[in-house]
Amino acid sequence: MISWSHHLIVTPILLPMMTAALLLFIDERNRTTKALVSLGSVVLLLANAIVLFLIESGPNSFDNVYLLGNWSAPFGVVLVIDGLSAMMLLLTAILGLAALTFSLAKWHAVGAHFHSLSQLLLAGVSGALLTGDLFNLFVFFEVMLAASYGLLLHGTGTLRVKAGLHYIAVNLVAALFFLIGVSLVYGTAGTLNMADLALRMPDMEPDRLILMEAGAAVLGVAFLIKVGMWPLCFWLPTAYSAASAPVAGMFAILSKVGIYIILRLTMLLFGDGPSAGFGAEVLLIGGMATLIFGTIGVLASQALGRLAGYSVLVSSGTLLMVLGINDGVVSSGALLYLVSSTLTISAFFMLIELVERGQDAGANVLAVTMEAYGDGEEADLDDGDGTTMPGTMAILGICFAACGILLAGLPPLSGFIAKFAMLSAMMGTGSIGTTPDLAVWALIVLVILSGLAALISMTRAGIRTFWGSIEGAVPRVLVVELVPVMILLTLTLVLTIQAGPAMTYMDTTIRTLANPALYVDAVRDATVVDDPIQPGTDQGGGTP
């Protein structure tokens, strides 16, 4: 009989789904009740993710396979938790909690079913991270996308509706490619279980292998649309910048789900055998093109929202390049970069609303109300030759500077450590795999230039925002909006202080992924639980 803790694997899916259903029965006018239920669910989700992460950080990693319906693979649906999925689950729960906390100020009340859609988004992302077969990956992918459609359209405004309709159209095309790819894979291999696919691919006939690779390529297009690889990325900056601040903060994880799936399938199906390295050149060249396009967009952006949107493309391009390189040491640094950049971009999207809130009122300075923060002494300042910067503006300025340092990859924060780990690995190997030395140096130059572009753009935006005139109306900012931003940025500081253990975890995760036999054996050896009612079974030492 399995222990109760084993059921924690399925909890990240069931908990938000059940919460979303429960919230539908609560009247929309009871927004406080809905907010408390939703927030409590995400707190439990975070606690669950922490436990799973600690389990996978221990010595008994990679022995957790959950058989849904008590059917063994490849016939039943399996959920698999390992170091990579545990890390991504924890990151998802952190962003979800931060975004929902931020939304309590106003955004959860500007439309219907915000909390239900948020819970469904978390359930879809969690399912995509845990599932062990391609069909259920498609199901959870669609749950995630369907929830994101409603969240992007949450609120008002012509720009948001226009961007939302474009987003829906593009992702429906991605879903179509996903379905076609899954059909090709199943028609060729006769299975959609990832572990079973890894077992069957080495023994496939050449003609069937070609069809299998074609199906994988079509699947790859769907994932690369979600990641935002050039030229499939034209929709992303507009959509993310048009979304409300908490929704954009949650959306920061969506492109990383695409990266996760590509990394998982690449290492599992195309790490060894006759198809080893399949698609690596496409990822390498596409990543370079995406990084160049994102860097140009960052430099050209005048609005902070579009700057953040193009920063997502810079992050995606960097990670795609590393996947194309397919080097374990570089990939370890890339995983740290994935976590750091996701936390930073999520915090930046929410910070942008606070920074820009006063512009419509003719002021670039924000202050918290006396009830929310501070003692209100600044309201009684006498006019003088100089102007005193309110305390809240100083806090926002520090957060903005931290985002700039992290996006640019400057010391001492985690963005620098992650980029340094990647670049030092590239320079230390000289030539990685079959990549010429010139190409390696081109990658290094692109990563450095993207950081320089982020530094220039953030400095320009900071001067315009924080050093402009501070005369005029002072809008209201609540502590509940400041705290999530500060917590996300504090977590990047924790990553900096704990860089050694973090890199050790990333190294272990990459080594596990590079050995597909561990995944295959764990799924294949997972046994069903005996029926306690069936005669002849002995559960817990009892007498049959």
TrEMBL record:
<feature type="transmembrane region" description="Helical">
    <location>
        <begin position="112"/>
        <end position="129"/>
    </location>
</feature>
<comment type="similarity">
    <text>Belongs to the CPA3 antiporters (TC 2.A.63) subunit D family.</text>
</comment>
<feature type="transmembrane region" description="Helical">
    <location>
        <begin position="307"/>
        <end position="325"/>
    </location>
</feature>
<feature type="transmembrane region" description="Helical">
    <location>
        <begin position="438"/>
        <end position="456"/>
    </location>
</feature>
<feature type="transmembrane region" description="Helical">
    <location>
        <begin position="6"/>
        <end position="26"/>
    </location>
</feature>
<protein>
    <submittedName>
        <fullName>Monovalent cation/H+ antiporter subunit D</fullName>
    </submittedName>
</protein>
<feature type="transmembrane region" description="Helical">
    <location>
        <begin position="35"/>
        <end position="55"/>
    </location>
</feature>
<feature type="transmembrane region" description="Helical">
    <location>
        <begin position="282"/>
        <end position="300"/>
    </location>
</feature>
<dbReference type="InterPro" id="IPR001750">
    <property type="entry name" value="ND/Mrp_TM"/>
</dbReference>
<feature type="transmembrane region" description="Helical">
    <location>
        <begin position="394"/>
        <end position="418"/>
    </location>
</feature>
<feature type="transmembrane region" description="Helical">
    <location>
        <begin position="331"/>
        <end position="352"/>
    </location>
</feature>
<feature type="domain" description="NADH:quinone oxidoreductase/Mrp antiporter transmembrane">
    <location>
        <begin position="132"/>
        <end position="431"/>
    </location>
</feature>
<dbReference type="Pfam" id="PF00361">
    <property type="entry name" value="Proton_antipo_M"/>
</dbReference>
<keyword id="KW-1133">Transmembrane helix</keyword>
<feature type="transmembrane region" description="Helical">
    <location>
        <begin position="209"/>
        <end position="235"/>
    </location>
</feature>
<keyword id="KW-1003">Cell membrane</keyword>
<feature type="transmembrane region" description="Helical">
    <location>
        <begin position="135"/>
        <end position="153"/>
    </location>
</feature>
<feature type="transmembrane region" description="Helical">
    <location>
        <begin position="247"/>
        <end position="270"/>
    </location>
</feature>
<feature type="transmembrane region" description="Helical">
    <location>
        <begin position="477"/>
        <end position="497"/>
    </location>
</feature>
<feature type="transmembrane region" description="Helical">
    <location>
        <begin position="75"/>
        <end position="100"/>
    </location>
</feature>
<keyword id="KW-0812">Transmembrane</keyword>
<feature type="transmembrane region" description="Helical">
    <location>
        <begin position="165"/>
        <end position="189"/>
    </location>
</feature>
<dbReference type="InterPro" id="IPR050586">
    <property type="entry name" value="CPA3_Na-H_Antiporter_D"/>
</dbReference>
<keyword id="KW-0472">Membrane</keyword>
